[in-house]
Amino acid sequence: LLLAFGAVRGESPRLGSGPRVGVIDVKGTIGGGADRDETEDILKRIRRFAEDGDLKAVVIRVDSPGGSVGASQEIHDEVKRLAQKKVVVCSMGNLAASGGLYVSVACPKIVANPGTLTGSIGVISQFPNVKDLAEKLGVKVETVKTGKLKDAGNPFRDMTPEDRAYWQGLVENTLGQFVKAVAEGRKLDEAKVRAIADGRVLTGAQAKEAGLVDQLGNFYDAVELAKQEAKLSGEPVLVYPPDERGRFLEQLMGGAAGAVADAVATRVAQGAADARQPGVYFLAR
Questions:
Q1: N or C terminus: fewer CB in 10 A for the chain?
Q2: Percentage of the chain exceeding pLDDT 90
């Protein structure tokens, strides 16, 4: 009962006596739609670990293609605050690109697999154009607006040169924010970052050569690095936040928890589709 209670509270059962190392997952599309709820959960988990005086080190596990700009920046800033109180190490999984990289560079140390896909420093904004389809269907849309740019990106008309220049200015400004965050986080010259800020994806090995990654290795190498940086001894006990308790409850409840997990996964997939709404994104394509 005590083990079950500990799991519900959010900590892995303390079957070991080693130092506690926190683990926070940043997975899937960041922000937008249903994923907005996940972003808020991540922020709460970071705050919880920041307030835990007995926790000396945290590993941020990133496996994400990126997502909305604002959500990526929110998580990035909260991770930076956490790093002022704890040892923080990023572990890049299969994918830590665009917004995933934006979150990662908030960590003072980054570990990636040689084959991790990262980089993709850039900003994208896409707009559907259904003007011809609407005309074929006999649909006409009347727009009443207060300014000439108020409906820039309207899918029922062609984008004007002025519209395009407006949106280009937005994405260029946002790219500048991205480049600055990477340069500050990795202690690189902005010119060096801009040289690879053309949207290209890098492998973990290439990212290390470019200065985006500190060392190559897997999740447990990142845990070991966090342990060393925090000067901890003994086999670490990994601690997961409350919202990650499903992994232990699934063992207790069997298929029932699995069915719930499937339902949640479906909702997340729908949210990822919602995230493709017009806007600006740190998103690998």
A1: N
A2: 69
Please tell me the pTM assigned to this model.
0.81
Q: What share of the chain is helix, strand, coil (3-state, %, to 5)?
A: 45, 20, 35
Active site residue 136: no
State pLDDT tens for residues 54-104.
999 999 999 999 999 999 999 999 999 999 999 999 999 999 999 999 999
Instruction: Select which of 150, 180, 231, 233 is catalytic.
Output: 150
The first and second tokens of residue 49, run together, are 């670990």
Which residue in 158, 213, 165 sits closest to 188, CA to CA? Answer: 213
**Band of pLDDT at residue 12, cut at 50, 70 and 90:** very low
According to DSSP H, which parts of the chain are helical? 2-9, 35-50, 69-83, 99-104, 131-136, 161-186, 190-194, 204-210, 219-229, 246-253, 255-274
Q: How far is CA 137 from CA 12, 141, 155, 165, 283, in A?
A: 58, 12, 15, 30, 33
Domain spans of the chain, in order of start: 2-121+189-283
Catalytic residue among 98, 104, 109, 208: 98
pLDDT digit string, tens, across residues 154-208: 999 999 999 999 999 999 999 999 999 999 999 999 999 999 999 999 999 999 9
Question: What superfamily in CATH does domain 2-121+189-283 come from?
Answer: 2-enoyl-CoA Hydratase; Chain A, domain 1 (3.90.226.10)
